[in-house]
Write a structure and sequence with these properties.
two-stranded antiparallel ribbon, 10 helices, Arc Repressor Mutant, subunit A, D-Maltodextrin-Binding Protein, domain 2, alpha/beta
């Protein structure tokens, strides 16, 4: 196995055509450099350099070694820098999960776009699923981080960090008696006798439980007639006139034919949180860099 320092010394000598100048460039004395070259020739068993009256030049075998060694040294420098970038969290692969409603909030796509801009050397895998599925994927280490709606605590090995909170809106079918005067907030109690369509609890436990808790505080239990597997499906059922739903305000970006959105009165104390879930004991520079970028974005959002 030829040492890289010997190859580097040989390449420098051939490039300079002079051992003295090569020694100066390598910041070593001439005798140690000469010994390195002699050792390389002895190791390979061939003559690599032809001594001239005013310098040296590569033999035919030396030219072959020169070209191969220069390519190998360039590759070694790239490898070294790749390892350093990985140690700084600037290169590698990260798997990011998010709920469908999280993907619709500008914070998440803007963050991912910024992440790609400042860290182009990182490949990303994006997965959309319900909060429960995402947390399971984190536990199984199929994901590195995830944006979820559930403030689930007590899962071994996971940390849940708050990112933001957004208002929730009532989604009503066009023509519903409450779909008029859409500029005024609706008291939650006014929904007491309505048919609710909610995001299925196992997939969206955080939002589901928050809605039920708010209704109970208002003095009623919602009449849930249908549960949908995803929030966009919930809106489709509302648009079909099957009932109403309560969804994060960012879902309004989906629009939807036959749907009117109304704000909910402040007395309901109802909002949709977004959390960053990640492994507690993984100190990967890549994950820590992503975590820091989320913290910077949250800080900038509050200061703005």
């Amino acid at each position: 196995m030829i040492e890289l320092r010997r190859l580097r010394a040989f390449v420098t000598v051939v490039e300079e055509g002079n051992i003295t100048r090569a020694a100066e460039r390598l910041f070593i004395q001439q005798p140690p450099l000469t010994r390195l070259l002699q050792g390389l020739e002895d190791e390979l068993g061939v003559k690599l350099l032809q001594r001239l009256p005013r310098g040296v030049r590569a033999t035919e075998a030396g030219n072959v070694l020169f070209n191969e060694a220069r390519a190998l040294l360039a590759r070694a420098e790239l490898l070294t820098e790749a390892v350093r970038r990985a140690a700084r969290g600037e290169q590698g692969h990260i798997a990011i999960g998010f709920t469908s409603s999280a993907a619709l909030h500008p914070f998440v796509p803007n963050l991912l776009r910024r992440y790609r801009e400042i860290l182009p050397g990182i490949t990303t895998q994006l997965e959309e699923a319900g909060s429960g599925e995402l947390l399971d994927a984190l536990v199984d280490e199929r994901l590195d981080v995830a944006f979820v709606r559930s403030p689930v605590s007590g899962i071994p090995g996971l940390t849940i960090e708050p990112v933001l909170r957004e208002p929730m809106l009532v989604a009503l079918p066009v023509g519903h008696r409450l779909a008029f005067d859409s500029e005024q907030p609706l008291p939650l109690l006014s929904l007491a006798n309505e048919a609710f369509i909610l995001y299925r609890r196992p997939a969206g436990q955080g939002l589901y439980d928050a809605i039920l808790a708010a209704c109970h505080r208002a003095g009623f239990s919602p009449r849930v007639i249908q549960e949908a597997p995803r929030l966009p499906a919930t809106l489709s059922l509302v648009g079909a006139g099957l009932g109403l739903s309560i969804v994060p305000a960012s879902m309004r970006r989906l629009g939807g034919d036959g749907i009117v959105y109304r704000a909910i009165g402040d007395e309901a104390q109802l909002s949709a949180p977004l959390y960053l879930a990640l492994h507690s004991n993984r100190t990967s520079p890549l994950i820590q860099r992503f975590r820091a970028l989320v913290a910077e974005a949250v800080s900038a959002r509050h200061s703005g």
